[in-house]
User: Fold these one by one.
Assistant:
Number 1:
Amino acid sequence: VLVITVAVAILLLFSTMIGLSPLDILASVFTKSSGTLYPPFSSKVLAARTRHEGKEVVLNLPLARKWAAFCHSPDIEKHISAVYVSLPLTMSALIRHVVASPDFPLSVMGVVHAKHVIEQFECIDASVLGVYNYSISVTGSRLNEIGAECDVLIEVSSPLNSRLLVSTTMTFTSTDAKKARAARKRRPELTAAEQAAKTNLGPTASAPKQFVEEIKRDHSKKYAACSGDMNPIHLPIYCKAMGLPKPIMHGVFSLARGVAAITDAYSLATVPKLRIAAAWKLPMPVPATAHFTFGELVDVTKTEHANGLDTTKFKRHIEFLATREGKGGTLPHLRGVVSF
């Protein structure tokens, strides 16, 4: 009886935090296994079946202001970060209408946001984004070395002339424990140079800029409130019900904080077109001291994002890295590139 009571309590807690009904979660858990794909639709059919649209949605200006202030982004009356448009803006719709869909190809439990690619097509401020349209769909899914993954496309546009403002591709992964253990055993041991490269930028034109962000005990709770991401793994006390001794900081906060610093350093608030590509490595526990480093690359082939960088459309590429100290020394948390 005690086990059943605890299980029901955890289920109700998880459903309340992320905005899914207990039945949606149970359906995902019992019909989909971690690290597998379901259902086996083609990309075209999958996109059609998971597509969700919003028309003439009014921007929640007070909430957007809180998010911008928390992430040290510029005044949203003059500039709204592409990072905000890429996810927090449509977070609720993504969870309720796409991730909760029976056609979402991964199990809800244990799914991880691994990569994030944003393309901005014009400068965005509160007047441009005051009312907006959006569409969200799963555009592809595949098996990988440690389980399975899928891509979610989010497009935000203007209702006035349907012009596309921001396009985002999020990659979610689901891990099969057995496949992950086998993959770790197959990987060759890294050389000292390869290990060092994981926590250092590629060759930069000048000395990299650095700053430190102290992530305090209440940071994940505050970010959850202004972003809409109430996943229990990010919240004190509740994270323990998910098997975590400490909450972990939202990965999108680290992304937003790094992009805000780069926007300020390179005056990107008035640059209409830019691209942001990022991938998360290890989680950031709360509390923690996050070390950010960024600099302009002189050779884009020296970054792990090289294959995805458009060197014809964008001429400058700013690589950024977030790390933290751990038992094994300096540990990588986030790496990305802002191109413009």
Number 2:
Amino acid sequence: EAHDRHKKVQNDRLSVVKSLDDKINALGIDFQNDPEDFYKALAYADALRERDINVHDGGSIQAESIQTYHTAINLIKSKWYAMEEETRLLNQDGRRLDINQELYLPQKSKSIQGLLVGAYSNLAMQYYMANMFEQAVNMHDEALELEPNFMASLLYRADTLVILGKYDDAGAAYSRVLEIDQDSEIADVFSGISKVLVAKEDSFSGGWDKMVDLLGKLIPVNERKLKSILPADMASGTAQSKQQRQQAQIILMRNLKKMHLAMFSYHDHQSKDETLAWNHLSMAYKYKMATLPPFNAAQEDLKVDTIKKIFTHGFWPAGVGSDSKQPIFIIGFPRSGSTLLERVLDSHPLIAGTGEDSVFNGMLDQIRNALVNASTEGDPNAIQRVVQQYAKKVD
């Protein structure tokens, strides 16, 4: 029975991959036949990015997606430069909409300005998926130069700056999001603010007090909204209206999860109130579990099998690593398990863990980019040269 479930999940996944690949092939041919059409370039780039988001195969199409976005942007800019400034902001119906509203329109219904802003933002997110964080920030900057209040780029740029350790810039960007989002509908901002405050408290204007004050008002408001969507209401009305109410319910629960997690960070790091920290963490967990589908063991088995197939013997070129007695440095993304790995190694009698204080702190973005660039050179010795280069810094 377990084998049958595993086989079904695998077949379902292959079906999804085939559907995405068929879509990509069709759009790629369409764009090839009309390489000056920026709508077709965008459709092809978006399809490639969709595959990268949904199919975790090591980023096999990231380079092509990035290149196609650049091509689309150049094509859009050619038309953009040829237009009068006012007409750049008009959509196909001759109306001028807020760029944030255009985000949800079909591509052909957007203004040229909206297309260009969206393309820069999507390219930035593709760079982010490829772990090329400085490039991601640069593309968000391009989008924001055209539309300073474009929320997607403001928020995701700030999130990327946190990864790069640029907390002052990130804190200022989150403050800007709060200024524009008067109704505080974007709960992701509080996840970012809490990370900035934990790392460098003075990087966010108003500090913990401002965040706690905002959340003290927003959590009850969102909980009342959630209660207003009664279970009985979910069973009545048309299929479309039920789906809309269910989607609204999911959005509210996800927002509440993020808000409670931000409050957990406050009590865990600042107030040191373990009871309140646990209460908020428990509420976040409750809302998280309420939005998740039932646990699918076969799907998790498939994920493990996929990881095993990627990280086979020979994945790393020969010679990577070192047998010297120098210290072991663990480098990883936030929330990726690097602290857990350090503690596991520390439990070995011959290894002494020293916590998260490293001579590499402040250099992680530089090291990460060097490794990413080396991995794309096609030279099996490139990664080894980068490893040796940085290892010498701790000789």
Number 3:
Amino acid sequence: MLYVVGLGLGDEKDITVNGLEAVKKCKRVYLEAYTSILGVPKERLEAIYGREVVVADREFVEQGIDGMLNEALTMDVAFLVVGDAFAATTHSDLVLRAKGLGCKVKHIYNASIMNAIAGCGLQLYRFGQAVSVVFFTETWHPDSFYDRIKENADLGLHTLLLLDIRVKEPSVEALCRGKKEYEPPRFMSCATCARQMLEIEALRGEGVYGPESVCVAVARMGQEDESIKTCTLKEMCNIDMGGPLHSMVLVGETHPLENDMMAMHRAAEHDFLPEDQVPNQYLSDM
């Protein structure tokens, strides 16, 4: 049996009772570390679960996943996912491959950013499509998110922006030499996202959003030091939200209760970085 277990957003204690019972009866436990990260080291998971936890990074997911699925044909295996297992499409593919091998699969759900974002005070039923925003490079400025935001904005809906996570990414030089060398982990900040958004608006010029558009930045949702700040998109370019992970909301039409909640989270002057301390948004310069 393959147990696909959501861990929630905070720490080792956020696993559900059902999830914990499943993990404790598994002979192999893997922690997916490709689509998200947990706010605590794996040793804390091992202490509470009573099992060794093997980190399944990008290389494992791309090259070693078949070994895990074959194990699940003859023993109980847990695949742990930060947040909820099906918030990332990668895990749907995993389940399909497992089923194709004749492996039994059980899902154990948990909280993810897709529902925890309501903690900022915006109502979930007023959200449209979620979009992903990836790091720009000097020569590549992907703008597909702009069209999805426009569709949401035309309906007056909020847009949740999921910001880029780059963990164990091979460097271009290493790929050219055929060596296994990786870039340091990089996590997009709300400030970088805001700058990229304004750059694309300047290029496309369709008036989907602008410097005065209202946004909400969230960081480390579900953790003890979670942070929620509301400001304009222009102000967001200098917001200091601390460590990862960050997400952002471009606000649509609002209910009075939503306005009150956003006012409660209004960013203060000390929440912003001086211009000379804000990192360049281009990946190659980070």
